[in-house]
Amino acid sequence: MLPRLLSYVCLFGFVVLLTLEVVELARSYRRRFMAVAEEKVEELQLGIAPERLWLMTILGTVAGAAVMALVSGFNLVMVAIGGAAGVLAPRLYLKRAEQQRLRKFDAQLVDAVTLVANSLKVGMNVTQAIEMVTREMGPPIKQEFAYALKENRLGKRLAEAFESMKGRIPSRDLAITVNAMNIAQETGGTLSEVFLKIADTIRERNRIRGRVETLTSQGRMQGIVMSLMPWLITGVLYVVDPDMIRPLFRETYGQLVLVAVVVLEVVGWLMIRKIVAIDI
Q: Which residue from 10, 173, 189, 252 lies 20 to 30 Å from 125 (Cα-Cα)?
């Protein structure tokens, strides 16, 4: 009787320690997630509370695990994969929002540079010209230029403020603009003419970039279709004949096939991206 009681006590203690460790890991992950989410939400001006992103993480994890549990017959490996996909969903959302903001910034930059050049031509100084951008244009370029002006008013040189902007925003067009502006200020060139040349350069780069995207759009679409096709066919077959598809999720050999499919899909997608990605 006593050995059995001791075994129960040990088992209970192990479960308690394991639960405490899992809770501590969850708290640690939440702290890291909230720190990253707060920084990204503020940087991207998403207008969404970081707590809501954390709630999305929890709901996505539960939903992904539940779906995979129903499909795979509560296979622990598949449930873990579904939960991991739910955990990654908010991070992918933030990454997508960051890419969209960068594309919008690049699209606005040529108009902003042209506006600065025209403002300099009519006699304004650089600070006043940048203020025109904050008044006349919308986000995200309005926010970034306003932040640069705020740093300048707090004592940072305008060149340093734009260098900070270049560090925050991974835009080649912005890097060209900031470098050319710094060189013109150091060598004493006419800033209005420099900004007009920058605008022409960015406009030409955008034209070439649009042409390249048009020519490579078919390749990108083929990559998307080929990546989604196996999963669409699997979904249709699951609806038509579930018994035929269930072993793919519930049996070991079926799960190995799924792993191989995912690996091959990722490799194929990376190869297609490498082919259609043309550096301008």
A: 173
CATH of the domain at 121: 1.20.81
Distances 31 to 26, 210, 242 between C-alpha atoms, Å: 9, 41, 41
Which of 154, 187, 207 finishes a domain? 207
Whether residue 161 is found in the same domain as residue 174? yes
Q: CA-CA distances (angstroms) from residue 181 to 83, 104, 160? A: 49, 22, 11
Closest CA to 52 of 39, 37, 66, 72: 37
Distance CA 160, CA 175 (A): 13
Taking CA atoms, 270 is separated from 115, 192, 228, 258, 267, in Å, by: 39, 43, 15, 18, 5
Last residue of a domain, one of 154, 173, 207: 207
Is there a domain that residue 92 lies in? no
Summarised one tens digit per residue, pLDDT across range 16-29 is: 565 656 667 767 77
Are 127 and 101 in contact by the 8 Å Cβ rule? The answer is no
If one counts the domains in the chain, the total is 3
Identify whether 140 is preceded by a cis peptide bond (ω within 30 of 0): yes
Burial grade of 69 (CB within 10 A; 0-12, 13-18, 19 or more): middle
192 within 8 A of 117, measured Cβ to Cβ: yes
pTM strictly above 0.85: no
Q: Domain of 254?
A: 210-276
- Is residue 90 in some structural domain? no
What does the alpha-carbon distance between residue 97 and residue 105 come to, in Å, rounded to a whole number? Answer: 12
CB distance 277 to 267 below 8 Å: no
Does any domain span residue 191? yes
